[in-house]
Amino acid sequence: MRGLALIIALLTLMLSPPPAVAQEAARLVPGASALTSSGGGWLRGPPDMQLRLTLTRAVPYRVFLVGDPIRLIVDLKDVDFANAKAQDLFGADLVPAIRWGHYRRGWSRMVVELPGPYRVASAGLRTGAPQPQITVALEPVSEAEFAPRPSAATALRDLPAPADLPEAPITEGLVVALDPGHGGFDPGAQAGGETEADLVLEFALDLRKALEARGVNVAMTREDDSFVALEDRMTLAREAGARLFLSLHADALPKGQAAGATVYLWNPASDNRAARQLAMRHGRDDLLAGVDLAGQDDALAGALMDFARTDTQPRSENFARWLTSRMALMGIGMHGRPVQGAAFAVLKSPDMPSALLELGFISDDADRANLTNPLWRARMVEVVADAITGWARDDAARASMLRH
Length: 404
Ligand SMILES: [Zn+2]
Fold this sequence. Notes:
This protein folds into two domains: 26-156, Immunoglobulin-like (Sandwich), CATH 2.60.40; 175-403, 3-Layer(aba) Sandwich (Aminopeptidase), CATH 3.40.630.40. The strands form five sheets. The protein has a six-stranded mixed sheet with strand order 14-11-15-18-16-17, sandwiched between helices. It is elongated. It has helices spanning 2-15, 152-156, 196-213, 230-239, 273-288, 299-329, 365-371, 374-403; strands at residues 26-27, 34-38, 48-54, 61-66, 71-77, 79-80, 97-104, 107-113, 118-126, 133-140, 175-180, 190-191, 194-195, 217-220, 244-249, 261-266, 334-342, 354-358. The model is unreliable at 152-169 (pLDDT under 50). By secondary structure, the chain is of the alpha/beta class. The site of zinc ion has 7 residues, from loops. It catalyses: Hydrolyzes the link between N-acetylmuramoyl residues and L-amino acid residues in certain cell-wall glycopeptides. Pfam families: Amidase_3, AMIN.
């Protein structure tokens, strides 16, 4: 019988069509592909999201979700992403990260890190004109309703890029420094009877609570209405072993110049006028208090700082993406350019990922109404706390991939 089986097997082999002339791989058409969102708002909750992938020809595909962290996986047969960069996809800033690449013989994989729990409401392939398109509709669900694919471990094998295999996440032993701006003789910006120093302190204390509830250790640069020099704020954070330094502000700019939450990262070369104004104003109070920040680093120290920054700057940028995608998800109004560079002295520290978050601008009526609205503040606290823990997991996963 075994001989017969062998003959049948051989016959089958001989009868099967000769290896076809390799069909040209389908290509993604990046310009006609996008991630979009609809609905949602800070009172209504996360928006729906739609992923549209336009291809040069129809291909088999599959779509599923995995957890820890929450991701949408789209596997595509014979698709060549060629030189298209995932982060250039229209709407890529709606989510913390998108990656794609070759994954296994004949298959490519797209990984969309989601900023919260979703379900796949529908997925379909339209083969008609003008070009085939895969559409995936995502609907937000609660944590309890989130149903990732059970065999996630298998699904995660062979992902195209690092940071896709987080090992034992995460927040254990994580220390985050919260830096409520201003304080003491420096009230910061003022408008409508509110002061920036008070608003951001209140926010920071709420955020500390939310982070501690998530198992994160929080170091505060100030816990009351006292003045702390900028350099001391960084030193405090460093001594606490903070993995992230987050400065909180709610500044004022001339009417019409700024509204909506804005994330600032260190960039001494930034030529944005408003950002320069803000950064300058934030060194001035130190000078008033007798602290001189000028001339602290000579050329050698400068070079060392640049070297250290090659590690921390991408991590700060990644944190900014986590923040903006969580804010977009939860309907928090953001500045038209939500991530900007500025030479804020408090972001100078090269050895710690750091960011300065303008929660909003106290000079903008709508922003000020939000900042003083307990509902909005509670929502924003959740957004920032989730961004911090999401980033910390991602950051730890990337670090462990680098070590291997
Ligand atoms: Zn400020």
